[in-house]
Amino acid sequence: MFNLNLISHVLLWGFIIIQSFVIFLLTKLIVQFLNRFRLEGSKIISKGNKAPLFRETDTKGNLIRMSNFEKSWTLLVFIKDSCSVCKEAIPLLSDIKKNSARPLRILAIAPEEGESTIDNELDATINLIRSNDIINNYEVEEIPTYIIVDFNGVIIDIYKQNRISELYSFLGFDPSVTRIS
Question: Among the four residues 5, 77, 82, 105, which has the most C-beta atoms within 10 Å?
Fold first, then answer.
């Protein structure tokens, strides 16, 4: 009788643990679905709107929060390992950070399935986050894309590669004065 009770209790707890795990996975899938859900015709990521918040771990293991602005502006740089234009822009990122007329933190965001070729090319002060979710939430369709967010979390502007000189001008950065690798 004692063995039968013990076995039934172990089976019951096993079932409860498995059921809890399934509920956790379903909740995670529902949250991902709701994060990707967009109303047709509404452009969420645009100049003047609040930037989507995120909390991700960078490639160095640091927890990066978009909500932590620390009285500085944020430059989100969406790059890809296989992008030749991105590889040319990477050496300029540390110069932009050092020589910007505004207090600036730079977050480089790349797809998760990257070759990891850009990890070692970035300056230590620039955080690299590998996240497909952030790329999707910011509706990035073209690489490289640069998004400036002010210290209140408002998107100031979105720059594609064809407007890079406008970004440099906005930040008070002159690439001809700094090193170009």
Answer: 77
